[in-house]
Description:
Blueprint: E1 8-13, H1 20-26, E2 30-33, E3 36-39, E4 42-45, H2 52-61, E5 67-69, H3 73-82, E6 88-93, H4 101-112, E7 117-121, H5 127-142, H6 146-159, E8 161-165, H7 170-174, H8 180-188, E9 191-198, E10 201-209, H9 211-225, E11 232-238, H10 243-255, E12 260-266, H11 269-275, E13 280-286
Parallel strand pairs: 1-2, 1-6, 6-7, 11-12
Antiparallel strand pairs: 3-4, 3-5, 8-9, 8-13, 9-10, 11-13
Helix pairs in contact: 3-4, 5-6, 9-10
Amino acid sequence: xxxxxxxxxxxxxxxxxxxxxxxxxxxxxxxxxxxxxxxxxxxxxxxxxxxxxxxxxxxxxxxxxxxxxxxxxxxxxxxxxxxxxxxxxxxxxxxxxxxxxxxxxxxxxxxxxxxxxxxxxxxxxxxxxxxxxxxxxxxxxxxxxxxxxxxxxxxxxxxxxxxxxxxxxxxxxxxxxxxxxxxxxxxxxxxxxxxxxxxxxxxxxxxxxxxxxxxxxxxxxxxxxxxxxxxxxxxxxxxxxxxxxxxxxxxxxxxxxxxxxxxxxxxxxxxxxxxxxxxxxxxxxxxxx
Length: 289
């Protein structure tokens, strides 16, 4: 079967940090299913019910951190039904080791008709998933096959990279990712952890003191993992911290002049609940079409 943007659609969940409004401006065949963020009994839809800036302002002053929840199978089913005119749907999601979102999509696909849906656990999160969607779209634009897309997805899981850091360890501690003593010591010493996502889980890859050393470590990791050639695509996502964008863009293009800054987005409320205001993620993927 020849897959094109006319007969093949893509479904993402909102932790891809690609707002559906922006996706629909460029593509007719993409839908984004939002996760939920709850401040007590107030339920907001990620990237829809509350702006990124307003969310982070509220997060700073909240006596208790919000909770997050995955979409229901019914919410995924509505997205699939909205795309019923397409012969194939690629449904791309954050790591199932980080959330039950993928399993909700699996249940919805079973109801809708699993033979028409390709369910993908991306084994990563945030803009990395959006970058995979754009790589698929490029192939749909010229015509592709399930086999070629399967090869792309396997290579993406193996080769894509994300590194990120946080402004404060407070939210990692509140979310149970690190201990209170560790968070306090890190804050007193101005330590910034450098984290990544490997095999679907968040892992530490280093720690530095201060913003400039964090940027230097980002550049080192980027240079060690890439070559300067066409097809190197970069994404930047920040938690109400736009000052990082120019710095990371500059270091990426200084290190690899042929790189393309493909996406710059706000970290949504779900990812931001755990990372906290001021967090920033740096993503890259070499995509030789």
